[in-house]
Amino acid sequence: MAQTPVKVTVTGAAGQIGYALLFRIASGQLLGADVPVKLSLLEIPQAVKAAAGTAMELDDCAFPLLSGIEVTDDANKAFDGASVALLVGARPRTAGMERGDLLQANGGIFGPQGKAINDNAADDIRVLVVGNPANTNALIAQQHAPDVPAERFTAMTRLDHNRALSQLAAKLQVPVTEIKKMTIWGNHSATQYPDLFHAEVGGKIAAEQVDEAWLRDTFIPTVAKRGAAIIEARGASSAASAANAAIDHVFDWVNGTEWTSAAIPSDGSYGVPEGIISSFPVASRDGKWEIIQGLEIDAFSRERIDASVRELEEERTAVRELGLI
Ligand code: NAD
Ligand code: LMR
């Protein structure tokens, strides 16, 4: 008998990332080339028409794995029976907006969406938050979904991970496939820490194959500020590369991997306060993320991990004080 289609909900479906993401999901790249999918596109009322236009284009691709598409502005309907939720739609920071305003506006989106997931999603729901500030938006959604296991709420640092692979590969003039054990720690923000002290190239530690000044003054800031550099160059934030990273994250979560980076709820490992949704080196086994344990963290890395984690704690405190969690 044919497999039952898996329902995948994408919020912000009419946006830039949505447009780069939906066709790849429908073609089988999110879950596997033998897994049929049903798509649910959630948008705000003003953008439902544009999302419906994208749905028309999805129809026009006649994807063999795409068994149905719905377009809605009703979160309860969108998440009803969903097994994967990609939370892409968010309130961007606009001129004059303070951090508290940004968190408040996003709390108004991710709180209700978390509740709608809690009340309607399938038991095996997996949530990836892409919309910024992704880690804290994921925390807000998670806190409104008490019936869903906390670890099902994750945030995306896979784009940062892929950027780090690419920058290092270019520096050492090796294919990206030669690089193993790359790690992004902390927040998806400029404080994130891309770690070359555990990454390996050709079986040897990456940090020992580059000079310290390049690592400190070029590599780390280039990766950490790449999002801003893309905005500056394109006049819009990363879309295709963000969609690609979202595909990578969910595919690996479902199908398994030995080492990548993902922001997942901390269990206290590596001194990261429990509950914070922070990026770690992770493996995925039996459909669950596991933090890779036992890495030695030297003073250089410790300082940078702590700085990014501190920022996440401040964001958690701010959303608590705003009554958002
Ligand atoms: P976009 O502005 O093109 O699209 C966002 C869409 O979300 C819009 O269509 C908007 O109508 C919709 N939306 C807003 N509120 C919504 C709600 N409550 N429910 C459903 N839909 C809603 O933006 P984009 O380029 O697609 O980027 C989306 C988000 O992803 C932004 O927050 C961006 O900063 C973030 N982003 C994250 C990463 C990452 O690595 N984590 C990378 C790139 C971009
Ligand atoms: C990125 O890393 O490309 C984005 O998070 C940047 C942004 O602010 O949307």
From TrEMBL:
One of its GO terms (molecular function) is L-malate dehydrogenase (NAD+) activity. NAD(+) binds at residues 12-18, 106, 113, 130-132. Keywords: NAD, Oxidoreductase, Tricarboxylic acid cycle. It comes from the Bacteria. CDD domains: MDH_chloroplast-like. Residues 157-317 form the Lactate/malate dehydrogenase C-terminal domain. InterPro entries: L-lactate/malate_DH (IPR001557), Lactate/malate_DH_C (IPR022383), Lactate/malate_DH_N (IPR001236), Lactate_DH/Glyco_Ohase_4_C (IPR015955), Malate_DH_AS (IPR001252), Malate_DH_type2 (IPR010945), NAD(P)-bd_dom_sf (IPR036291). Substrate binds at residues 93, 99, 132, 163. One of its GO terms (biological process) is tricarboxylic acid cycle. The keyword Transcription regulation does not apply. It catalyses: (S)-malate + NAD(+) = oxaloacetate + NADH + H(+). It is an enzyme of class 1 (oxidoreductase). The active site is at residue 188. Its EC number is 1.1.1.37. Residues 6-148 form the Lactate/malate dehydrogenase N-terminal domain. HAMAP family: Malate_dehydrog_2. Catalyzes the reversible oxidation of malate to oxaloacetate. Belongs to the LDH/MDH superfamily. MDH type 2 family. This is Malate dehydrogenase. The lineage of its organism: Bacteria, Bacillati, Actinomycetota, Actinomycetes, Streptosporangiales. The gene is mdh.
